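User: For a benchmark we're assembling, each entry needs the component sequences followed by a predicted structure for the full assembly. Here are entry 17's components. Please fill in the structure.
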Amino acid sequence: MSETDEILEVSGLSVDYVLAQADVRAVDDVSFTLSRGEFLGIVGESGCGKSTLLFAVAQLLAPPAHLAAGTVTFKGTNLVGLTDAQLSAIRWCDLSVVMQSAMNALNPVKSIGAQFKDALKAHGKPSKEEIAARSAEVMRMVGIDPVHLNSYPHQLSGGMRQRSMIAMAMLFTPDLIIMDEPTSALDVVAQRALMVQIKELQQTYGFAVIFVTHDMSLISHFSDRLMVMYAGQVDELGATRAIFDRPLHPYTQGLLEAFPSIHGPRVPLKGIPGNPPDLAMVPTGCRFHPRCPHALERCTVTAPDLYPVDGDLVRCLRRKDGSLPDDPGARVAKTGA
Amino acid sequence: MAMPVSGVPAEAPAAQLPAGHALARVGHAIRSNRKATAGTVLLVIFILVALFPGVIAHHSPTADAYPPHLGPSAAHPLGTNAYGQDLFAQVVWGTRNVLIIAFVVGLATTGIAVLIGVAAAYLGGGWDGALGVLTDVLLVIPLFPLLIVIAAYAHGEGTIVLIMAITLTSWSYTARQLRSQALTLRNRDFLVAARVRGERNLYVIVMEVIPTMTSLIVASFLTNALYAVLLSSSLQFIGLGDPNTVSWGTTLYWAENNAALQTGEPLWAIAPGACIALLGAAFALLNYAFDELGNPALRPVRRNKRVRNG
Amino acid sequence: MRYALRRLGFFVLTLWAALTLNFLLPRLMPGNPALAMMSKFHGELSPKALSALETLFGVNSHEGLLSQYFGYLHQVVTGNFGTSLSQYPASVSSVIGSAIWWTLGLVGITTILAFVLGTGLGIVSAWRRGGKLDSVVPPVFVITSAIPYFWVAMVLVLVFGITLHWFPSQGGYYVTTDTPGFNLTFFQDVVNHAFLPAMALLITTIGTWILTMRNTMITTLAEDYVRMARAKGLPGRRIMLDYAARNAILPNLVGFAMSLGFVVSGAILVEYVFNYPGVGYMLLQAVSGEDYPLMQGLFLLITLAVLLAILAADILTALLDPRTRTAR
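Assistant: Structure for entry 17:
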């Protein structure tokens, strides 16, 4: 039943952290699909499990994190359980990764060019000329002068480092690039420039993107679909525009209301009271109920599934049976970002 | 299978809880970590032996009143040496000298290091530079030959000279470490808050900074005690301590002088050496356990026996 | 460049400090040891040797401390370390010259071996966290690094030298039957005699290398760039060596300088137990024979050797870590 357009299907993915006292489930039964060329944004507060999810999809978990259940079907093959040797054929050629801090993600003792070369030589036997040509090509794609291939990471500016990471991810023009908050370490101006660059590359080369961030306003202009995570679970999943126009989950509503709008009328800011739960002791029933302004008795008892509502998937009992008072003040967070 | 790579990031020694909690934590930590337990047990045994040697060894260590060259027996558990002295008594009574040296030097060296390290971090500028150069030079000059030279000139004046010489030369490594940590702490929020509150520098240093560095200071004490034991025993072994004190190092000196190994009296040399090794191991184990406590990434990894879902 | 100059300046400063210590110590000690030594050897020395000694120790000198000091420095800089008392009339330099090769061979080779093996074991044991190697390595080597060097040496002498008679336990070669030269028997003899001392040194020093390398390696393996290397599908060995080990080894090279002190003390003690005719053994002979000029000369030599080794480690670090090469 898979569409020929679909390149990634994540089904029932769960990740546990194996700790001395007990196991903590950081990602709980997450499922979603991704089509060719699609841009999926994943947002949530710190600690909601979004980065862990990303690493789980890319099979980059390391102890004490451990993939407890689920499948990750990438272009027809289930990646879960494959050895590193089996995965290496796909790695970087079809699926690449961009990490949050380039300063930490790049080997400090090797030049940029040397790190590109390592990746190129890991998949095939390119000649020296081919390596040089391709390295220069991807650097130009992101707008960096290829002369910087000889530089070491600490010699480049933050923005350039981040862009060279993206260049590196493009070495084989993969079908999917997974990005873990690549803009968080940059200033606002550089953030926007980077996002625009990523979007342009995506439109030119047609790769799909999974983009994790905590900054909803940033993602709103660039993603096709949006996934909102809370306490290790998916709370809402749907088209970005639709979610921004009319957020269905109370958590999503709260997130959007926390971002001021530049264009709209001045409204007092509302944060979401309380803190995300300790994943070792999640609340009974709906995990969001302690902070939800609409929580009822049954929300503390029954744990909701993801229900299809209005074209979205929402994890809310009250939304499912239409008993939520729809807040007429819910507005779209238009930002100038 | 996928490569077993540790995913737990290392942390710098974290701020400590106030003293009351610290004691309870130490107790729990010792019990839960095998290395710490082993080290503590060994250390306690040695301390008890040093405190009550007469209870354990019934003969005098110095009296050469027994028939020489005896092998181990009920009356003399380690036999006697070429002079007719009871080896077991020598080893037992020698514990006192070694432990005194270990603790005095450990404390004094760590004390000097705290003083110099923290002062350098806080005074900054010219003082930091000068103290830094002094520390670095002392760090590089080979310690053991220097101690040999000092002891040679001092003509075996005994334990006091040994203690002073070792203390005055061994503080540099610890001072460096403490200075590093003090520097990183200097700008931490809770210290800035103290300064903003109007507390004077000295107060901040003594009441806030030093308690936060407790784990490093304790680890330094253990290291310095260990090296004090090794250095002093080595010096006594080559004859630069007072050969008439009862200590493991001096016993080894007499053993070597009388070619104990070659003349079929191996216990004379092996026994005190084993004690040094055990005491050293106790300090080293405790130190290592401390390292693991401060940096969770180093702890033994729980083997994951689960099967991955496909 | 500025960094290199600063380091060089530091080394010169340390050498100067060692010289000054040499100058001050005999004058500071109670009971004027120099005087005692001089009277012991008085009758046997030539006037030239005597006057050199007087400059070294300031005995019978009517000059002030400062001019004594400059006289001493002048003497040292012109390469005159005096005449050895216990091996009179040989000069200190020539005595040192004969001993230095034995120590260089034994200690030099063993240290390099210990470093290479230790680092390698540390890398592998960290790479296979939770494996059999890793559960055995830390406790075993924590304990071996706390054992006094001379005890290991003595145990080896006892077990392999005396009880089993597998290796000789004294000296550098069979003094009575062999003559030094470039022949095979001599060479075999030297290796035979060096084996146990080398083992003693190896066993006690390797522990530090293994443990520190393992610890830094574990920290490095948690870094993002190692995860990235996995993400790129790089072969395991390349990640272990090129991405993890190359970074993990840097703090160890810095620590190498600290550990030299222990290598030196280990070498001295091992040479003593085995009567191995190297610099350490000579130092202890000088001490017991109250041959202070020789003792001072050896002390300076050892300090110089340590400084040179640190310099080598510094150069290696600069080569491996591009961050140190740019502005400091």
